[in-house]
Amino acid sequence: MTDAKIDIKGVRDGLLIIIDENSEWMSAVGELAEKLDKQAAFFAGAKLTINLGSRPVTRHGLSSLKAALDNRKLALSKIMSDSPTTTDAAESLDLRTGPASVAAESDDMGATQRYRTQPFDPNEDTVVGLLVPRTLRSGRSVRSDGHVVVLGDVNAGAEIIAAGDIVIWGVLRGTVHAGAIGDVTARVCALEMAPTQLRIADRYSIAPQDKGRWRRTKPEMARIEGDYIVVEPWQRTARKD
């Protein structure tokens, strides 16, 4: 059995899963299922787009992938493929399809690609992140396997789930989950904190009944200290990793 290679990226409307077209199929499906189970909180409720490259996948093979997702209550939104066999199989299962080779330039993915941080000098200590240069309105959801930076507000009804930190250059009113894969050192920063729910790793905090205690007009940072989430003034600090 060969080692499957699966790349997962946060995109504007969900998650993009890229399965190496040269990996053994059942090994790839098994590895994906293992990732989904290990990071269930991160994937919960996500809309998934899967890029299969030019790999030909039969209807039976694609059904096994879809069943693995259905069993975990995950929605397979779209299959991207350059193989006619795979495209026909996907359409026979009533799945949306699109070409794999232009995924990065399509309408669905283009905006997110522009937001993604470009690599710096390899001597710099950098982490993959997602930049959202606008306010997130109610009903919008952003997921990232790295950090997320929002240049705007996060309104009530909007959601951000990130494996790393979440930085909001605006007012946080929605739901955020930093360190969603278990990073207890992750932080949430905002110019104004009034979240519906704030989670870091497996700890969470909800808005108090007296919302005035949450809502402050000074920049603040939430982090884990001991078994609790603490919120303190957002000051210039260097992260210790």
What does it look like?
Helix 1 packs parallel to helix 3 (59-70). The chain has 5 helices and 16 strands. It has helices at 25-38, 40-43, 59-70, 84-92, 107-115; strands spanning 6-11, 14-19, 47-51, 75-80, 96-98, 129-132, 141-144, 147-150, 159-162, 166-172, 175-178, 188-193, 197-200, 203-206, 220-225, 228-233. By secondary structure, the chain is an alpha/beta fold. It is elongated. The strands form 3 sheets. It has a 6-stranded mixed beta sheet, with no helix packed on it. Strands 1-2-3-4-5 form a 5-stranded mixed beta sheet, sandwiched between helices. Strand 3, helix 3 and strand 4 (75-80) form a beta-alpha-beta unit.
Question: Concise description?
Answer:
The protein is 20% helix and 33% strand.
Please state the average pLDDT score: 80
The number of distinct helices, counting runs of at least 4 residues, comes to 5
The largest sheet, given as strand count, sense and whether it forms a barrel, is: 6 strands, mixed
What's the overall geometry?
A: elongated
List the SSEs and their pairings.
Blueprint: E1 6-11, E2 14-19, H1 25-38, H2 40-43, E3 47-51, H3 59-70, E4 75-80, H4 84-92, E5 96-98, H5 107-115, E6 129-132, E7 141-144, E8 147-150, E9 159-162, E10 166-172, E11 175-178, E12 188-193, E13 197-200, E14 203-206, E15 220-225, E16 228-233
